[in-house]
Amino acid sequence: MDEISLRRKVSFRIRGKRIVLIKKSYESADHVAAKALCYAAYLPLYPGLKVEIKIGQRYKPDLVALGEGMKPLFWAECGAVGKQKIYKILHKFPRTHFSFVKITGDVGQFKDLVVQQKEKACHTGLLDILRFPEDIKERLSSEFLSGLKLKKYLAFRSGTPR
After folding, report:
1. Which residues pair with 50 in a beta bridge?
2. How many Cβ atoms sit within 10 Å of the Cβ of residue 13?
């Protein structure tokens, strides 16, 4: 699935649930693929997982599972995310499980940045960084996504579960 072949709307059936992803003009194919991969990885842990919904905050997560009072239990950011946004969301939701998903780039420097912001924000919840190989986009299918295992792509984990 390259930039040219990615349709504007892509749908998958993952573990019995249908997910429809709409590629916006400013989004890369990597970003859309990362959302599908993240959804598949965390759906067993968060069956109520939603894609790109507003939750009444300044920032909108790529994926989110909500608890009581619309507070996020889980929040995922797929692709590029800046230092300020990382700090602000970790600080605002100190016990929320966060996941940052990468398909391209070095995870080492990004991990250092995230750990620094986690400590600064006094975030105690789980924090994951998932790293997928660049060629994974060619394997995207409902069948592949339904069998995806979180542990295989977990590059980093810190914190304690709720």
Report:
1. 64
2. 13
What pTM value is reported for the model? 0.91
Residue type, 116: Q
pLDDT, tens digit (0-9, with 9 covering 90-100), for 122-137 = 999 999 999 999 888 8
Domain boundaries, the chain: 9-158
Please state, in angstroms and rounded to a whole number, the distance separating the CA atoms of residues 100 and 78.
6
User: CATH homologous superfamily of domain 9-158?
Assistant: Restriction endonuclease-like alpha-beta roll domain (3.10.640.10)
Closest to 105 measured CA to CA, from 139, 138, 134? 134
Give me the residue label for tokens 């295989």: 152
Residues 46-76 have pLDDT tens digits of 999 999 999 999 999 999 999 998 899 999 9
Give the per-residue SS3 of 120-151. HHCCCCCEEEEECCHHHHHHCCHHHHHCCCHH
- State the burial class of residue 78 (Cβ atoms within 10 Å of its Cβ: 0-12, 13-18, 19+): buried
Distance CA 132, CA 29 (A): 14
